[in-house]
Amino acid sequence: MSEELENTLLNAELGETETPLHLDRSSELKLACYRMYSLAKKRIDILTYDLEPRILSEREIEQALKEFIRQSRHTEVRILVFDTTMLQKVDHRLVALAQAFPSYVSIRVLAKDFQQIPYSFHLVDDSGLIYRTNHSELESLVSFNSKLKVREYRKEFNEMWEHSRVASELRSLSI
Prior knowledge:
The protein is built from six helices and eight strands. It is an alpha+beta fold and 175 residues long.
């Protein structure tokens, strides 16, 4: 990652930074997620195929999300996954976070009707957007100030959320 891109990401502000960024490396995407999650105040919604372990199961991402949910009792992280098969076989930091903070972090499985969707996205508050046209590719559009698109995708996310099921297979078993 270039120093210029790194500085741009580290200095970006939600609702203020106008220039969208095109990223195609996992290190860039990790930093974009970290920065955006670190700036969140109310809500983070994530539509992802399998919780993207090479990006979202990083300690820095986990820390940013922990700090986010500890800000207020009104914060919320909603995660929609296509499939939990792989998640049941690995230790993923966000699954552990959902198990530790179930009032703040929810993971649901996308309904069959929506399983053909090729894209994925992260919505942060009212203006942050990380969008991948193909969830199996790293190419991403990152925008810290995309209110209209976030509103559009959040409406779609809410509909998918309504028709999804709780990922009960990922809940922790307490004895």
